[in-house]
Amino acid sequence: xxxxFYNEGMRKMTVAFGQVFNNIQIKxxxxxxxxxxxxxxxxxxxxxxxxxxxxxxxxxxxxEFAITLPRMGFEIAGIEYDGSRxxxxxxxxxxxxxxxxxxxxxxxxxxxxxxxxNLFCFTATAEGGLQIIEQILPYFQPDYTVTxxxxxxxxxxRDVPIILNNINYExxxxxxxxxxxxxxxxxxxxxxxYLYGPASTQKVIRETQSDLHTDLPAATREERIxxxxxxxxADADDDFGFTTTISFFQDGKNYDKTRDEDV
Length: 263
Prior knowledge:
Blueprint: H1 9-20, E1 25-29, E2 34-39, E3 42-44, H2 47-55, H3 62-68, E4 71-81, E5 92-96, E6 103-108, E7 111-123, H4 126-136, E8 143-151, E9 156-172, E10 182-195, E11 200-203, E12 208-212, E13 223-230, E14 241-250, E15 253-262
């Protein structure tokens, strides 16, 4: 039943999520000018990894913290099936197979899944944390939509809303109460994405034929309906039609009636 395929659906979703927060900056200002502008580094890593590295800094000297903080990280927190967005199973996406004129690639409708992400923001000061948060929150009301090229060979692109669920704040420190260790914001998001199954191929239907009988079983055919698409190639434009031929049989004679229909 199961065979190997990999559309990189969750990987592309995770990369797209990271790209949303890949240009956050912190600016330190003086009396009348910007003293320093820092682009906040972003990495895929769990929160505990950052906390361990913070604990390895024995000194709270401003210069040493500038090397480590500010910092941002994110990770997948969970994956959950979303039955409220379920689509019909029999509908297909289709595209012409490259190098052919009579073979179609097709893929059935995707399966809806919600992927939860946690975004962590670490700063040495409260001001730095507020700068990061204020560059994020105005874009989520409460969602922000990204477009993902899910299955390029099928030409399938999907708009995925990323919803901001909640924000947690903590002030982590060591030593006395006047010594600040790190300000940490944790933002929880849900991406309402879809996962696609393996792609398959099928040939183009060039003609359909239906035989009608007055009674069944019957040895004599009463009517035959033949439908031929025009044009018959797989790479036809949207403007195409059908040629329908209806054949009547009476006393062994054939009476044809042809009708062209545009779609």
